[in-house]
Amino acid sequence: VSQQLKEEIRRGFAGLEDPLPGLLDMLESSSDWKGKGHSLGYYITTEFQLWIKEHPAVPQSGIELKKLQARVLGILAQCPANLLDPLISIYQLHTADRNYLLEHVSHLYHKGHYKEAAMLSIKLKLQPDQDVEKMCTPLLLQDQTNLVEDYVGEYPELQSKLLQVLDAWCEPGFNISNVTRQYQGLSRYKPDKFNRKMLSKLVFRLLDRFNVDPALCPNVINQRHLRTLNYLFYKRFVEKTMTQENWTDHVQSTVGDNRWLQGHLMRLLMSYCDVTTAARWAQLCNLPKEMLPYGVAEELQKLHIQERVEETAKADNYKERKKEDYYQLPIPRANIHFLQTWEETWQCWEKVLQPGQVVGIDMEWRPSFGMVGKPRVSLLQIALKDEVFLLDLPRLLEQAETEDEKEKLPHFIQMLYSDAAITKLGYGMSGDLNSLAATWSALKDTDKQAQGVVDLLKVDKQVDVLSPEQSYEDRRFRQPEKGLSLLVQHVLGKPLDKTEQLSNWEKRPLREEQILYAASDAYCLLEIYEKLCKDPASFGLSSDLTESLVGKPSIKPRAKKQLNKQEVPSPSGQQCEGSEKVTPCPPPPISPKEFSVVCDNMLQGLGRYLRCLGVDVRILENEDDHRKAAEIARQEGRVILTSGLPYQTLKSQIAEGRCFSVNCSEKAKEQALQVLKHFNVQVSLADIFSRCQ
Questions:
Q1: pLDDT digits (tens, 9 = 90+) for 57-99
Q2: Region entry Disordered: which residue ranges (predicted)?
Q3: How far apart (Å, rounded) are the C-alpha atoms in residues 310 and 313?
Q4: Shortest CA distance to 385 belongs to which of 574, 576, 571, 573?
Q5: How far apart are CA 601 and CA 620, in angstroms?
Q6: pLDDT tens-digit readout, 217-249
Q7: What pLDDT does 186 receive?
Q8: CA distance linking residue 365 with residue 225, whole number of Å
Q9: Residues near 206 by Cβ (< 8 Å), separated by ≥ 6?
Q10: Cβ atoms of 216 and 164 closer than 8 Å
Q11: What is the pLDDT of residues 240-278, one digit of tens each?
Q12: Pair type for strands 639-642 and 358-365
């Protein structure tokens, strides 16, 4: 607002005999403030708020002020939100009679102005004297969840009451239409947004935001645990990607002593397993006879007392994986160190914090299965060339009694990540560092200070992985590899065994399988990096892509800063040598009409761009296998345009020079220029849009 307008507004107030009623006269007779944004009425009101502080003699007597306050309340019901605070302050509404204010808000509510009633209640702090269910229900029906959160934001008692109401609505058998029926004519009603799923999400968000005990919401928590239970059965008996011990740990911790969940567990066991397995779990849970499914009671009488649940051969009716089918840790078991005391960690830091060192880093935490709170790191794995250190973070935190001791480990971790002379290897580092920050607030800025990190997730982003052919048996018993396991499979020949991935990493002692899994997850990063450094071309990586790996941890690859290849150390400490580029003689020039290609499915944008230039293009669909490109190329005499690892497989299936690897990190235009230059395709004006698009 210009200085001239401010001065004019102030002169106007100074000239009024009674400025407080004068402002209301102006607002009541004006309509410009009823729209959105900052109106003239808004500027006059806020300027008056400043002016009145400089003229303390202006405020009215008690009776006169009450009359003004009654007029203000009428304006507040219609004015934009940005006028609430100035008007409440100017006319001292916090000093008004509380019952009068509550009556006014109630009047607004019964006229159907639910949002306005809630906003005014928040500004005047009336919530403790209101019915939280009554005030919040219409707001939830209108999808005003943010306003509901603000309404209870400063009142723990109201937070608890609201959560209990929402949880009661999620009780099995409760008819939500009983709630919605009362608000049939509600404007802006969004019934699709008002259901158990939405309510459940809101409950978890409120539990997390207000740090309320989840035990307050048994229905929502039970439903979430039941979904977890169904998921665990799917992982164990459909996907077959969880070991028996791992699955048993999670089922026990999910069900606990909850009879309702135990009843569902029995039904799932009868569906997926057999009566003997169900009987053993019934024995473990000490279930009463009336809860047992048909046949389980008789089976239970036959069983001897057992200390732990064991799965029978009949229940475990799928082909067991052979360990030799998976990546094997190449170092002796004695070289894996599980560190639980501060004294033990010193040997780790002395070896790790060495200039020129290359370390693989990974972290494990207990799966949350959608429950409240961020995951806290339970295990930190640091791999060197000859050994792996597994740091038991909960135990180390427990032992740190003094403030000085509590800062030791975060200090070492910060030193490690901020030292550019130490190469840190990871896979999806941002997620790991976020979990570290949730475990220790002192580590919240580690990702910003990190230097010399190599996030191998970028390799997966830069190259498109070609899945090898699987036998019928493999397809039947093994899930397709993904993530780090897929990268390990293509670079090192065998995938990671991920059956321990969803383990309970907080439970101590860790099982031997968990220890080996955790060590392998960190150590394989060293082997991948070394192999990529030695021979990037054989994995479809151009040298500039390999050079770009060193940098900040990130989730999505961005434009890479070019580094000299000599700056990338290998795990053995040796530098990777770049190869000299030899420029071949260009082929004879051809027109786009003479040039026919088949584009792999990761290059659909390139295919469309080349077609615009008159090139004869066929493009693979998303669901097509990369190998289809070779079939088309052979049948129709086309050149294959592909990228990354598929290039290695496809180039061996057709004639030399008929398969070209395109840089996937570039845009379609740059890719097209690269292709046209390589094949010496000369585009004329007549070629552009000469083909049907």
A1: 655 567 888 889 999 998 887 788 888 899 998 898 988 999 9
A2: 556-587
A3: 10
A4: 571
A5: 5
A6: 999 999 999 999 999 999 999 888 888 988 999
A7: 79
A8: 18
A9: 149, 152, 159, 162, 163, 166, 212
A10: yes
A11: 888 898 899 999 999 999 999 999 999 999 999 999 999
A12: unpaired
List of residues 6+ apart from 448 with CB closer than 8 A = none
Coil, strand or helix at 590: strand
**Residue bearing tokens 């018993």:** 477
Q: How far is CA 83 from CA 41, 46, 72, 126, 665, in A?
A: 9, 8, 11, 19, 50
Q: Find out whether 677 and 656 touch, Cβ atoms under 8 Å.
A: no
| Cα-Cα-Cα-Cα dihedral sign, residues 205, 206, 210, 215 | negative
Which of 610, 591, 594, 564 has its CA nearest to residue 684? 591
* pLDDT higher than threshold 60 for residue 672: yes
String of b and e for 109-146 (b: at least 16 CB within 10 Å)? beeebbbbbbbbbbbbebbeebebeebbbbbbbbbbbe
Q: Is 626 helix (H, G, I), strand (E, B) or coil?
A: coil
Q: Which residue has the tokens 């699955």?
A: 247
Distance CA 472, CA 469 (A): 10
Q: How many angstroms separate the CA atoms of 122 and 124, rounded?
A: 6
Residue by residue, DSSP assigns 373-433 as S---EEEEEEE-SS-EEEEEHHHHHHH--SHHHHHHHHHHHHHHHH-TTSEEEESSHHHHH
Percent of the chain beyond pLDDT 90?
42
Quote the longest CA-to-CA distance of the chain.
Answer: 99
Ramachandran angles phi, psi of 239, nearest 5°: -70, -30
Residue 323 corresponds to which tokens in the numbers above?
């360990």
The reported pLDDT for the residue numbered 382 is: 98
Q: How far apart are the C-alpha atoms of 296 and 293, rounded to whole Å?
A: 6
For 4-138, strand residue ranges (E) read: none
Q: In this predicted model, what pLDDT tens digit does every residue of 613-643 receive, in sequence order?
A: 999 999 998 888 888 999 999 889 999 999 8
Q: At 644, list the tokens.
A: 């990354």
Residue written as tokens 């799917």?
A: 234
Enter the tokens of residue 407. Answer: 């800062």
